[in-house]
Amino acid sequence: MGSMKAVRPRVSYADLERAPEDGRRYELYDGEVFVVPAPLLKHQWAQHRVAEILYRYAADHGGVPGQAPLDVAFSDYDVLQPDVVYFTSAHAHFIDPSRVIRHSPDLCVEVLSPSTAATDRGKKMQMFARYQVPEYWIVDPDAETIEIYELRSGTYELMVKASGDMAITSTRLPGLSFPAGSLFPVR
């Protein structure tokens, strides 16, 4: 007789909704629950600056930006909290501000933290690719860089890694341009 392995039941978004509020942030990867630790202050600064740029862009070009904590339920068992998301004006009609997001954003942005960097570059990136998020940015507050990835044939291809005065542009967001270094505080 073979050994028995404990099987954990898959957790769904509906299960998360029914759970009592405990102040933690959760993500689901194929129904497996992961606690998302609170970000460091330098993470929050960079996240805020990215969101601020995208809110200004939306004011001029349309679209819907958002930032964590914010659930994106790609499926009942795949629920992530990207640091920043953006839906272009062509996809803004998919968003109901009174309901959980159930459509893939045009852009997801993750700001690296020591506790989340491996996930952001690994399974989270793979999940965004699986659900066909066309553009993915990784912002690294320690290195003061931003990497722009585009989805090509189901995988992300690094288009540019920028820092300092290098201009950031986006194929998904025409007319968007800002210096990479503007995301990081001046010392």
Label this structure with key terms.
two-stranded antiparallel sheet, 12 strands, 187 residues, globular, alpha+beta, tt1808, chain A, 6-stranded mixed sheet, single chain
Query: What is the structural class?
Result: alpha+beta
The helix/strand series, from N terminus to C terminus, equals: HEEHEEEEEHHEEEEE
Mean pLDDT reading: 93
Largest sheet: 6 strands, mixed
Radius of gyration equals: 17 Å
At the first level of CATH, what is the class? Answer: Alpha Beta
Strand content: 25-35%
Overall tally of structural domains: 1
Going by CATH, the homologous superfamily would be tt1808, chain A
Count of runs of 4 or more consecutive helical residues? 4
| Strands, total number | 12
Weakly predicted, low-confidence segments: none
- Overall 3D geometry? globular
Q: Give the fraction of residues assigned to helices.
A: 10-25%
Strand order within the widest sheet? 3-6-7-8-9-10
CATH fold field value:
tt1808, chain A
CATH architecture: Alpha-Beta Complex
Cα distance spanning the termini = 64 Å
